[in-house]
Design goal:
Layout: E1 4-10, H1 17-25, E2 34-40, H2 47-57, E3 62-67, H3 73-83, E4 88-91, E5 96-98, H4 102-111, E6 117-125, H5 131-141, H6 143-146, E7 158-159, E8 167-169, H7 173-176, H8 187-197, E9 202-213, H9 218-238, H10 245-266, H11 271-296, H12 301-329
Parallel strand pairs: 1-2, 1-4, 2-3, 6-9
Antiparallel strand pairs: 4-8, 5-9, 6-8, 7-9
Helix pairs in contact: 1-2, 5-12, 9-12, 10-11, 10-12, 11-12
């Protein structure tokens, strides 16, 4: 039975960290073979108190906390990796919830040699109460929001580009290195790009399941996806071959809206294609929203789903374009604080 280290980047997660620890404690994998390493970005809430209280109440589960003064996710993962002692490493997040057999299934797939990094399906759930949070969660799981990201909707095992909350043997780090701390996000995708370039397989197993809690507000959603888009461009500059159609469409859409809008101010002729694009886009999202509302018997999705998906597309595309512009005019882009 290989030993397993679960590494968790964490910052101000007092509302969810205990739920995650309880889910880890309930794993079917032998507890004697588990350790939890939490890299905390010097939380200012009661996160550390919650961790300490749980550790005191459950002494049979080894829990360690290390500091992450940089307060960025890849630095947290690296700090946790340096502390971890397990033969197998599984990455989770402070706002996630793994199914009870999560660790057991990850280890089984790795031991069977199915992939160098294995993971499973995200079940997207609302991060807050109310119709808007439910709409955001539905949008994050919808094909128009997730594109061809199989980890949000796959039904069969497959070799993929990336997986969330991956599991890998520690020896893999000697081949591909640690997480890239120059990226504020997309660190999993970039890590998996190096795994694939080294000849390793990224394996998606739908029987491996975890719950991910989506953003609860449109503002939080917009900031999240603008950040995704911004750092995706930086990652693509290193690995242009990893570009997928779903990643190209949002910046093209945002660029067309901005370009036609600016031209339309001076040349009325361009207002016609702009209006046609907006009407077609709105109609497509509305049709998807109505279909989802009927399917889930939640009337608010007819309006909420199109609203959330449009925020995701425009924020992601705008972030991507802004990163391109900065890359043209600024030779070195210093990572922003989280």
């Amino acid at each position: 039975m290989p030993s397993v280290s679960i590494i968790i980047p964490c910052y101000n997660e007092q509302a969810t960290i205990r739920t995650l620890l309880e889910a880890i404690y309930a794993q079917t994998y032998p507890r004697a073979g588990l350790e939890v390493v939490i890299a905390d970005g010097l939380s200012t809430d009661r996160t550390r108190e919650q961790i300490a209280a749980f550790a005191d109440a459950h002494p049979d589960l080894h829990i360690a906390v290390v500091d992450n003064p940089k307060r960025i996710i890849p630095a947290a993962l690296n700090a946790a990796l340096k502390e971890a002692r397990g033969e197998i490493v599984i990455r989770l997040d402070g706002h996630s919830w793994p199914y009870p057999d999560y660790v057991e299934r990850c280890v089984a797939d790795l031991e069977a040699g199915l992939g160098a990094n294995v993971g499973g399906i995200w079940e997207i759930r609302p991060g807050a109460d109310g119709w808007l949070a439910a709409s955001i969660a539905a949008a994050a799981a919808h094909p128009l929001g997730a594109g061809d990201a199989l980890y949000r909707r796959a039904a069969k095992p497959a070799s993929v580009d990336t997986v969330p909350f991956g599991a890998f043997k520690r020896e893999l780090l000697a081949t591909v290195g640690f997480f890239d701390e120059t990226l504020l996000t997309n660190e999993d995708y970039e890590f998996n790009a190096r795994v694939r370039k080294s000849g390793g397989v990224i394996w998606l197993d739908p029987s491996i399941r975890s719950v991910y809690f989506a953003r609860g507000t449109l503002g939080g959603l917009a900031r999240q996806y603008a950040r995704y888009g911004f750092w995706k461009w930086r990652m693509l500059r290193r690995y242009p071959e990893t570009l997928r159609w779903r990643q190209a469409l949002p910046p093209l859409f945002a660029a067309s809206l901005a370009g036609l809008g600016m031209l339309g101010i001076f040349l009325p002729l361009f207002r016609v294609p702009l209006a046609a694009e907006i009407v077609f886009y709105a109609a497509a999202l509305t049709a998807a929203g109505v279909r989802e509302a009927f399917r889930k018997k939640q009337a608010f999705l007819a309006f909420g789903l199109p609203l959330a998906i449009s925020v995701m597309h425009i924020a992601w595309g705008a972030g991507f374009l802004w990163s391109m512009i900065k890359g043209i005019f600024v030779k070195s882009i210093a990572p922003a604080k989280k």
